[in-house]
Amino acid sequence: MSSKTKTSITLLLALSLILLTFNVTLVNATEDSWATKVPMQQARSGLGVAAVNGKIYAIGGVISGGFVPSSPGSAVYAGKTPVDVTGSNEEYDPETDTWTYKAAMPTPRAVFAIAVYQNKIYCLGGKTSNSYTGVNEVYDPATDTWETKTSMPTARAFLRASVVGDKIYLIGGHGLSPDEFLLVNEVYDPVTDTWSSSEPMLSGTLFGYASAVCDNKIYIIGGLSQDHVVNQIYDTETDTWIYGTSPPSGVGGGAAATTTGDLAPKRIYVIGNTNVGVYDPDTDTWSNGTQILTTRFNLGVAIVNDVLYAIGGHTYSFIPGNYEPLAVNEQYTPIGYIPEFTSWIILPLLLAATLVALLCKQRLPKTAGNGLDGCKPKLTALEACHRLVLSERQKSNT
Question: Across the beta sheet with 231-235, what order do the strands follow?
Fold first, then answer.
């Protein structure tokens, strides 16, 4: 091999290393960070947020501000206090960063439970203008239509819905009376449209909690009460409850989502007020993420490709007690996030093809004119790459 060839190969290897290092630097710079995206078309709080096939749907909520002095920020809608609710339904496309109105939810409400089962969105319970309901309405994004199903046995609000297997679990919540904190654990079967009961949770003195599912277990985190730092874990396979390590700070009117472990380590992210709590279910430990850009209560959180979106919510000033709904949409890239760079796969292949082309050109004087095909005098990197792919395919087929 000539010195010229050695020099070329050395330069190519150095360039590849530089490019790879540059890509890794970009990934590390974006993890555990927030970015502002296009807001909803209508400001809302206490809305339901869910993701289906890469799109996010923001449904229902409270659309006007109010005055509730000396109240916990996420409890301003509790009880019989009248609120201006909507059934508005907006679809968000993270790829184009655009919002589109879709068919509205038939029963306008807020602080209801929302879940996705077989690409349909279930909206259960919640607060209408001045009462609580157990209504169960299902949205099909594929047809942009709604369907009414059997209502929850216990009408309530400030609850979450959790999907495990082919069941939807509706746990806890708040009844219409001021001190009606519920322990109830009602299970909905979407296939048969029927309800059953399971083991109640350990502490019912909370509402407005955050909830997430990981490995067939449901995590009930925080809520507004003296137990706002509690972490209750429900095992759906054994129908039993245990306490997990409490979050480092209170969670009231927050929301949670679980990263899958594909593009980011498997964690439960709890977002509310200003805080981002990061929970590792395997080690039962907590850490803190970068604080949210916009402080708020009763927001919705959805996750697409292990990236989180915190949508809507409301501001609250303890003194004098004013609150106002928000249209804000902020994107959070989780800790340890590594996007799938297709260039990482292509780069080694192009490097190999270029090296083959250089070697073939060096061999040309020895083979030209000897009756053999040798290497083409003008073999390009692309041609060499194509030959390598064909060769590998032939090997795999034999």
Answer: 210-214, 217-221, 231-235, 240-243
